[in-house]
Specification:
This is Type IX secretion system outer membrane channel protein PorV. The chain is mostly beta strands. It has helices at about 5-15, 40, 55-60, 270-275, 280-285, 295-300, and strands at about 70-80, 90-100, 105-115, 115-120, 130, 135-145, 150-160, 175-185, 190, 195-210, 210-215, 220, 225-235, 240-250, 300-310, 315-325, 330-340, 345-355, 365-375. The strands form 3 sheets. It has a 14-stranded antiparallel beta barrel. A two-stranded antiparallel ribbon has the order 4-5.
Length: about 375
């Protein structure tokens, strides 16, 4: 048998939960929260307030209004659980086009393939081959509201094909639609005593939409609606040397699992009531529903620090750190990355070192991205 069915279950929940974490928040399609490009993953999985790149669709589509060239294409590859299997991966492709100095549109595709799995009830039974997968197809439009500030909206179609044909039910995928609302601020270049500088601020409320449902009349599964906010500063020492420092905070706008009937444990009845919460109510509840109050709400916020050094816009070095509470998923890791640009082409690499006792599915994984930018140049000053 090539893989066990239990692997699929692990892939669905691994990014967000461990056995002892009853109140860790889990959602459907968690692949939407995985950093899908090597530049962002090299800086601690952040991108809401970093400078523009072709992969801004996932992090903050409002940055496309500050693109420096007419159009660009990016493709990236992220192996997943590489220490266990070799055919599970996340693929990402994006395309953007600037309509003029103030506006741009972009399209993106993220595909999470779980490889080929053999299913059988007994050892002697002929195996049934299945290829579970999930994908998201999205488009965005960004517009500068001033020389320094832009906003964007994005729409997303999500499909999760994790239900298997067994002779008694259809293997129809679960589908959903979601939207993003984002903003990005980039200050003019400011002259300080020993260097010039530029401030950046960004936010993105992503995956706002209805729940996924795999069975008719079955349980509703929340999408990973998420609030990202971040800031950054560029130290511009001269035209060849730039150092960017960034920080980012994330909070899932999804209700916290809790004991509704007060019997001291989370039962199946509690889970049923939890999943009956509407996504719209859940967004507002998520700011104050943690059973242990404000201290637990703070634990539901992840944070990251990242830095990027650019030399002549041809060579880049990156590093970062990501932190999540041990009670809410326990993801803690350092990342390293590098980028190389020649004319219109750029290749980026990143690597992750876990510092948590909970094993990270992306631990010791090398990720790749390839970008092409071409066409008319925009100064964006």
């Amino acid at each position: 048998m090539k893989k066990l069915l239990i692997l699929v279950v692990f892939l669905i929940v691994a990014p967000r939960i461990s056995a002892q974490q009853e109140r860790a928040i889990t959602t459907a399609v968690p692949f939407l929260t995985i950093a899908a490009d090597a530049r962002a993953s090299g800086m601690g999985d952040m991108g809401v307030a970093t400078s523009f790149d072709a992969y801004s669709q996932q992090w903050n589509p409002a940055k496309y209004a500050f693109a420096t060239q007419k159009m660009g294409v990016g493709v990236s590859y992220t192996p997943y659980l590489e220490t266990i299997v070799n055919d599970v991966s996340l693929l990402n492709a994006t395309f953007y086009n600037k309509l003029n100095d103030r506006s741009a549109f972009a399209f993106g595709l993220r595909y999470f393939g779980l490889g080929e799995i053999e299913l059988r009830q007994t050892i002697d039974q002929e195996a049934t081959l299945v290829k579970p997968n999930e994908f998201a197809l999205d488009g965005s439009y960004s517009l500068k509201l001033s020389q320094s500030f832009s906003m964007a909206v994005a729409g997303r179609f999500i499909s999760s094909n994790l239900r298997f044909q067994d002779g008694t039910q259809d293997s129809q995928a679960a589908n959903a639609f979601a939207v993003d609302v984002a903003g990005f601020y980039r200050s003019p270049e400011i002259a300080y005593s020993n260097f010039d500088g530029r401030w950046r601020l960004g936010f993105n409320i992503s995956n706002i939409g209805g729940s996924l449902q795999y069975d008719e009349g079955g349980q509703q599964n929340f999408l990973p609606t998420n609030l990202k906010v971040g800031t950054g500063f560029d130290f511009i020492f001269d035209q060849d040397n730039v150092l960017a420092i960034n920080t980012e905070f994330n909070k899932l706008l999804v209700p916290t699992p809790r004991d509704f009937n007060g019997d001291g444990q989370i039962t199946s009845e509690d889970n049923d009531e939890y999943h009956n919460i509407s996504f719209f109510s859940g967004i507002f509840e998520s700011f104050g529903d943690a059973p242990d109050g404000f201290s637990e709400e703070l634990k539901e916020i992840t944070w990251a620090l990242g830095t990027e050094y650019r030399f002549r816009e041809a060579f880049m070095l990156r590093g970062g750190y990501f932190n999540e509470s041990a009670e809410k998923g326990a993801r803690k890791y350092f990342t390293l990355g590098a980028g190389f640009k020649y004319k219109s082409a750029q290749i980026d690499l990143s690597y992750l070192f876990s510092t948590s006792q909970v094993k990270n599915p992306l631990e010791n994984t090398l990720r790749f991205s390839l970008t092409f930018n071409f066409g008319e140049e925009f100064l964006n000053d």
